[in-house]
Amino acid sequence: PSAEHSVTASLPLAALAVLLKPLEDINGLAHVQGTLVGDLFDPDVEATARVEQGVVAGLAVGDASGRVTRRGEQVEARQVAIEAWGGHATASFELTASGKVPAKGEADWEDFDAAKIGRLGVADGEWSLPSKGSLQLSGTLDPLDLSIESTASLSPKLASSPAISARLRARLEIKRDQLGLTAAVDQGSANQARAALTLTDGRALSGTIALSLPDLAQLAPLAPARFRPGLSGRVGADATVAGTVDEPQVTATVTGDGLTVAGATIPTVRGNVDWTRSRLKAKALQLATAGGSAELSGLVALNGSESNDWQLTVKKLDLSPFIAAADFFGISVPT
Following CA atoms 156, 162, 164, 168 in sequence, which dihedral angle do they give, to the nearest 10 degrees? Predict the structure, then answer.
């Protein structure tokens, strides 16, 4: 029989996976107040809902509230307000609860700070990455196959420096066992970063990163304070990423021209490096100064788990840039 019922309830979101399996990776506490109209076992729903301490696939996403409706197989969430990562957003979402469960949605946000995402391992207040942008979502929930496209303005800054401005364009592909990210970041008309990264089974990393920084001075506010004065030059890198989230590995070809860092100017840098959390390995990393050059090869330890094992070959090297750097740090060098 058709009837109207009022409902007030609080329940863990994980319980909804019993009704819709693709929601099993979503956790939090939901508070719902609304009406059920029609067949008690298959009603239309009009409700306001609030989610506290929402977590999606292990990532804390904060609190959300909005209006939820269900008409047959159609489920919609409208005027959803989200508070997370120091910022706020408004969003809408709809899905069809049958077949592959097609879904689509959109959101606009302001002041979301990526540094507040717990998985990044950043000390509180050390740096911030606020952003303002929008996204569009489309795909299916069963099997999980979602695509999110986004554009945003970024304002990264260290605690002791002014922010810089950049623009982000990104596409995130979400599957059951894999995340795929392609992203481009542009600072003004010069500095650029491009990335294509894949995360498999929540652990394994693979992909590429390309940096083109023809105006290093624009990034000076993001350098440690003592390195900012006079920082300039041109830097490029093409890198491959492998390993795992806990133990990433980066292999890169690097170039530098007219680099001025810590009071030293090095006209040319060319070579290859391998990086992990424990060591930096140089492969024929060449430094050229006026009338001379040096080549660095071997391993430089970054923590106590490795031992230094490197060789420096010098050919008529002009030491003045390195003496200038030593003076910058207050180190006396015999001449």
Answer: 20
Closest CA to 136 of 85, 174, 185, 171: 171
**The dihedral sign for the CA sequence 159, 160, 161, 162:** positive
Query: What is the residue whose two structure tokens read 């391992």?
Result: 121
The span from the CA of 32 to the CA of 206, in Å, is 41
List alpha helices for 176-258, DSSP H: none
In our burial notation (b when 16+ CB lie closer than 10 A, e otherwise), range 73-89 reads eebebeebebebbebbb
In 68-114, alpha helices (H): none
**pLDDT single digits (tens) 30-74:** 788 888 787 767 788 888 988 887 776 556 677 889 998 988 889
CA atoms in the 13 A half-sphere facing the CB of 164: 17
Let me know: does 198 contact 180? Beta carbons within 8 Å.
Answer: yes
pTM for the model:
0.81
CA 302/CA 280 separation, integer angstroms: 7
On the question of pLDDT at 326 being above 70, the answer is no
Q: Which long-range contacts (CB under 8 A, 24 or more apart) does 37-42 make?
A: 37/2, 37/3, 37/4, 37/5, 38/2, 38/3, 39/1, 39/2, 40/3, 40/5
Amino acid letter at 233?
G
Among 20-29, 105-114, 214-223, 277-286, where is mean pLDDT lowest? 20-29
pLDDT band at 92 (very low <50, low <70, confident <90, very high): very high
Q: Judge contact between 49 and 30, C-beta under 8 A.
A: yes
Instruction: Work out the burial of residue 91: count CB atoms within 10 Å of its CB; fewer than 13 is exposed, 13-18 middle, 19 or more buried.
Output: buried
Q: Which long-range contacts (CB under 8 A, 24 or more apart) does 130-133 make?
A: 130/86, 130/87, 130/154, 130/155, 130/163, 131/87, 131/155, 131/168, 133/108, 133/109, 133/168
